[in-house]
């Protein structure tokens, strides 16, 4: 599983990049737009062909999911959320393997990071304990998919191949490149090749 997380700020050209990513094979785009007014986000998403709506995950503006026909939401784990989002496919974020191991099957997948120092957030440093724990298989939770997050680009893919993970999430490795769709295709190809080596 390869996930792309959107930039947080509004970027006028991003809609064309989202569509190019879908054409390149992306099947999971997290829309993380906390500061964006509802109407602007609705305007953007209504320009996305219905066939691609199944690839969208609302990382913010979850209250618009039903209106837009979006079935996946990313939620905070605090508070009582089970009833409101019972019919949705749900993901969340964790920052330690202990946190991840405590998740229930309520969650389809969870981010775990930062595995490497952030590309998009200067100063947001890697947590070396995470990579070490995943390399020696201290993971106990297998009913929730584990998605590695933080500083992932082409040069880290080989390092990820030895870790006990189910997928990767990309942000800076995509949006800091001149051609996001091309960068996605290159990372996707390398990631699938490395997984193939492990499974063969």
Automatic annotation (TrEMBL):
InterPro entries: Aldolase_TIM, ThiamineP_synth_sf, ThiamineP_synth_TenI
SUPFAM superfamilies: Thiamin phosphate synthase
Cross-referenced PANTHER family: THIAMINE-PHOSPHATE PYROPHOSPHORYLASE, THIAMINE-PHOSPHATE SYNTHASE
Keyword ATP-binding assigned: no
Start and end residues of each Thiamine phosphate synthase/TenI domain: 5-172
Tree of life domain: Bacteria
UniProtKB keywords: Thiamine biosynthesis
One protein family per Pfam: TMP-TENI
Name of the protein this chain belongs to: Thiamine phosphate synthase
Pathway linked to the protein: Cofactor biosynthesis; thiamine diphosphate biosynthesis
Signal peptide segment: none
């Amino acid at each position: 599983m390869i996930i792309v997380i959107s930039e947080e700020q509004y970027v006028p050209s991003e809609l064309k990049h989202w569509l190019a990513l879908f054409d390149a094979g992306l099947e999971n785009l997290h829309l993380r737009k906390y500061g964006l007014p509802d109407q602007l986000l609705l305007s953007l998403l209504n320009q996305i062909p219905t066939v691609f709506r199944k690839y969208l995950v609302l990382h913010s503006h979850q209250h618009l999911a039903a209106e837009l026909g979006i079935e996946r939401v990313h939620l905070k784990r605090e508070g009582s959320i089970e009833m409101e989002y019972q019919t949705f496919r749900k993901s969340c974020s964790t920052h330690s393997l202990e946190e991840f191991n405590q998740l229930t099957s309520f969650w389809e997948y969870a981010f775990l990071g930062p595995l490497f120092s952030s590309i998009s957030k200067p100063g947001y440093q890697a947590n070396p304990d995470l990579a070490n724990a995943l390399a020696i298989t201290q993971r106990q939770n297998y009913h929730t998919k584990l998605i590695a997050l933080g500083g992932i680009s082409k040069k880290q893919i080989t390092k990820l191949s030895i870790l006990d993970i189910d997928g990767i999430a990309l942000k800076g490795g995509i949006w800091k490149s001149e051609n996001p769709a091309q960068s996605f295709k290159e990372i996707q190809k390398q990631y699938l090749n490395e997984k193939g080596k492990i499974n063969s």
